[in-house]
Amino acid sequence: MARVREAKEYFLKFSTPTAEQPSSLTSLGGNVVDDFVLVHNESKPPAVILFGWAGCQDKHLAKYGNIYSDKGCVTLRCIAPLEFLFLRRGKMRALGRRVVDDIMDLKLNEHPIFFHVFSNGGAYLYKHVALALQERAAPLKVLGVIWDSAPGERRFRSMYLAFKAILESRWPLLAPSGSGVTAALGLGSWPLWPGLGAPIALAVALVMTAWWLAEVLLQAMTSLRPQPLDPLAELDNVPTAYTGAHLFLYSPADKLILAQDVERFAGHRRGMGELVTAVRFEDSAHVQHYPAHRETYTEAIYSFMRDVLSGRRPSPS
């Protein structure tokens, strides 16, 4: 069963579990726990809330949702619009509140909750959801956050690569000849086709950088509490009540989110006394760890959730 809510502001999809969990393996009371079972309370299975990356489409995010629904979890998929992530950032606070309203309306606050956050786009939405939860003092039982290719500091190069990837995925004709997309369309036979995605992405990145700098300077002159240049800066201070334990899935081969950024953030949360687990994939690209290392990826998630749900400490990185 699934409920879909689509609005101009954002995309949200709620789905109920698809897997049948054997009753003999779903109770901790009898000390019977199977390594492959995540549901220990059939009436209140874990709820996993997925926040997609910038430019993500729900058909892609749904593949990750299946990782959880196949094990009997409830899933909620949320994708913030590009306009809010880059141009109308002031809308993100209201969007965070709206997602919290949906969580409460769907009664997911009665379930143990995990967040699965993809890239900085997902991390930015998660930050505003966490802020909204603090404002409302929402009684959520957040057990953990799974960080996939996130979070990272804002850098011009990362911004350019993100825009380039978004443009070429949305409009394949902008990709250079010889790429997988253009080859599939027959453009691979155009040896001189350079692709327009790169110059357009460069121009957009330059404009956005100038826009954000002007925005920060204006706020610095008119407000005692200007918005930080890095929109993810406040992630460092999200209370443990809205993070729980952490699992980081990242790679030094990721060109958009640097491994040292992820490791710095993980070290910061570990320094706050929180449980931190990390899996470092040496060769997978940005938000491509699951396609490249399917078995290792899913087992890392299942092990993390099993440990947290059963009260065990997750294995350290």
TrEMBL record:
Q: What sections of the sequence does the record tag as coiled-coil?
A: none
Q: Where are the transmembrane segments?
A: 199-218
Q: Where does this polypeptide localize?
A: Nucleus outer membrane
Q: Name one GO cellular component term.
A: nuclear outer membrane
Gene3D superfamilies given for it? alpha/beta hydrolase (3.40.50.1820)
Q: Which UniProt keywords apply?
A: Membrane, Nucleus, Transmembrane, Transmembrane helix
Its membrane topology:
Single-pass membrane protein
Pfam families with a match to the protein in the record? DUF829
Assigned protein family? Belongs to the TMEM53 family.
* PANTHER family named in the record: TRANSMEMBRANE PROTEIN 53
Its protein name is: Transmembrane protein 53
Q: Which organism is it from?
A: Frankliniella fusca
